[in-house]
Structure formats: C-alpha cells, structure tokens
Amino acid sequence: MIVIDDLEKDFGVPSGPNPVLRGISLTIEKGEVFGIIGRSGAGKSTLVRCINLLERPTRGRITVAGRDLSGLAGPALRAARHDIGMVFQHFNLLSSRTVQGNVSLPLELVDMPRGERLRRVDEMLDLVGLTDKRDAYPAQLSGGQKQRVGIARALASRPSVLLCDEATSALDPETTKSILALLAEINRTLNLTIVLITHEMQVVREIADRVAVLDQGLVVEQGRVFDVFTQPTHPVTRSLVREVLNLELPERVRSRLRHSPQTSPGLVMRITFTGPSANEPIVSEIVRRFGVSFNILHGHIDYIQNAPYGTLTVEAGGSEAGLQAALDFLRVKSLKVEILGRVAAPDRAVA
Ligand SMILES: Nc1ncnc2c1ncn2[C@@H]1O[C@H](COP(=O)(O)OP(=O)(O)OP(=O)(O)O)[C@@H](O)[C@H]1O
Question: Could you state one GO cellular component term attached to this entry (predicted)?
C-alpha cells in the first residue's frame, strides 16, 4: 500500500544543510497497522508528513496505493491526498464549527453534494460513537471525544491510508486505550492501512502488526512487533522496550549483586519465556526434578499480539550439580537464560 524508497529530507537552514531523513526505505502492506517509533527529533513527523507530501522529499520516491506521489502537484496532488487521512496529536479541529461541521469539511472541499455529505458525516459519527455530539462544539468535548472527531474527519473521504501522528500523546492512559481500540476496530472492519507515529512503545505493542524504529533519520530496526519486543537488537530499541517491560532489578537486589559466572548457590538469573514456553510449568518442573530452590526476585508476563512473553528473575539455591542440570534443562527448552551474578550468603536473606 505504501512504498518508501530511499527517502531523504534535508531542511536548508542558515548554518548549512540539515539532513533529517537519510535514506529511508519501507514497505507497508494493505490492511496493516504499521508503527514508526523513535525518540524526539528522530524524524518521525517529517517522515509522516513526507508520506502525504505536506513536506516534499529532497530525494527518493513515495508510492501510495500504486500512485507515485513524488512528481505530483496541484489538483493531482490534492486528489492523491484525498486518499490519505491524517490524525494529529492536538486534533486540529476548527473551534467555530460543530462536530458535524468539522467532519463535513474535507467533503465540502471536494464539492460533495449536501445530501450525500450529511449521510457520510452521520455514518462517520456512528463509526466513532459520537452521534449524540453532532451539534456540540470542540470546546464542549473531552480530549478523547475531540480525537474521535479527528478520526471521523480523517475517514470521511474514505481514504485507503490513515496516518496518525502521535494521535494519543495528548491523552490520558484510559482514553489512549479507548482510541487505540477504536483504531484497531477500524483497521479490522474497514481493512484500512494505518501508519502510527509514536514515541511510546506501549502504543506500538497495543495495536501495531509491524514496527520500524527511527533514529537520527535512519531506520535502525524493523520487524514484527513480537520479534522486535522480544529480541531488540539496536540500543535505541532496547531502551524503548525496557521502558515498557520494566526488566530492571529492584535496587535492593542490584546493589548486592556480584559478578560471578559460577553455578553456586545465590546464583541470580533472568529467564525469558516466549511463545509456547510461557505456557509450560517449567519452574515447578525444575524444582521437582533437580532439587533446586528458586527465590523469585522479580517477574512479569505480558501479552504482545496475543502471544505471551515474560521474564522471571530468580535467585537459585541447591547443589552445584543440581544448578547445572537446571541450567541445561532451561537451555534444552530453548529458553533464554542470562546469568546476572551472585548474591552472597548474608545478603540472600535480604534479597
Ligand atoms: N521545517 C523545518 N525546518 C528545519 N528543521 C526542521 C523542520 N522540521 C523539523 N526539523 C528538524 O528535523 C528534526 C526532526 O524533527 P521531527 O519533528 O521530524 O522529529 P520527531 O521525531 O517527530 O520529533 P518530535 O516527536 O519531538 O516531534 C529535528 O531536528 C527538527 O529540528
């Protein structure tokens, strides 16, 4: 649905060229929810604005629904943009127009006949659950309701692509969830391709199928959300994932941890469960089979695209042979095991 080929964007500033996008290539499939994540200044907004040519790329090519946008101008560009809806962080509603008037605006711009326009607006308001707010003004709406109007307006022209630029960043967590649920439902029912720009991994985890990580104008990592979450390779991705998965050890354990590769009692290890292994009673099996004890220090299990993913940090006790057998067993089960160190005997009571 969207093909971005070697896209570069350079903002000419008085101090010289300022390359913001440096050779981006991405392919986004029809019906996919695609997340683009990065820290502030990575170039996310510039990238999404290039997709609908609100910014003109310096070099490279952008094709949406088979149409090369790069060479378009004037009425041809306006027609192409009609096929790309956009939702903004701060909603960008006209305060002087009612909800109905805001949603109707893009249809008025293409001279849609009044009767058809009103029917379309009603259909959109029904889709976003705001029929009863038809005659309200933006100032009378909550943030979540304003964003629903923004989504209804973006969808009014029945675009093939919806671009969301930090669409939930101005909303509280509860409202964010409801807006993401609405986007997921729209994606499912209309088979609409959605591109989500965000700095929050939580948003990507919630609804995206695939994700690209942007850093300093480059795509540094991309893949299916589950894979990127469970096996991040780039340092920026790792730090974004750490923020939502909270893999940090509690300070009271970390401060007592000593580096030690030996499999002796007090061994602290982090076991990562992914896919089917997350559903197996592996810990109880190890305790039973090898006579080791596990003192759980930290752990959680999460669901990414409905697949379980979790980590468990334990302090293991028992004989050296038992511990070694437990480690071998975990590896046979293809679980990722990281030895974090050892806590000395007097500290173990505290840990
Ligand atoms: N019109 C412009 N002229 C000059 N530089 C610009 C312009 N727009 C953006 N930039 C620069 O491009 C870089 C990337 O900005 P962009 O807004 O795309 O990043 P972002 O990842 O969306 O960050 P944020 O989430 O903070 O908006 C920044 O260094 C910014 O200063």
Answer: plasma membrane
Q: Whose CA is nearest to atom 7 of ligand 1?
A: 11
Identify the residues whose C-beta falls under 6 Å from ligand 1.
11, 13, 18, 20, 38, 40-46, 199
Q: Could you count the other beta carbons within 10 Å of the beta carbon of residue 76?
A: 12
Ligand 1 center to 9 CA (angstroms) = 11
Distance in angstroms (rounded) separating the CA atoms of residues 248 and 323: 24
CA distance 31 to 52: 18
- Give burial (CB, 10 Å; 0-12/13-18/19+) of 114: exposed
pLDDT above 70 covers what percent of the chain? 93
Within the chain, which residue ranges are assigned CATH 3.30.70.260? 251-348
**Fold annotation for 251-348:** Alpha-Beta Plaits (3.30.70)
State the ipTM, two decimals. Answer: 0.95
Nearest to 134 by CA among 120, 119, 121: 121
Cα of 45 from ligand 1 centre, angstroms: 7
Tokens 């003109």, located at residue? 56
Residue with the nearest Cα to atom 16 of ligand 1? Answer: 43
pLDDT digits (tens, 9 = 90+) for 269-304: 888 887 667 777 888 888 899 989 888 888 878 788
**Has this prediction a pTM greater than 0.80?**
yes
pLDDT at 262 (0 to 100): 57
pLDDT, position 346:
47
Ligand 1 center–CA 43 separation, angstroms: 6
Q: What is the DSSP letter of 160?
A: S
The residue nearest atom 12 of ligand 1, judged by CA position, is 20
What's the CA-to-centroid distance between 42 and ligand 1, angstroms? 7
The CATH superfamily label for domain 2-244 reads P-loop containing nucleotide triphosphate hydrolases (3.40.50.300)
Residue ranges of the chain that CATH labels 3.40.50.300: 2-244
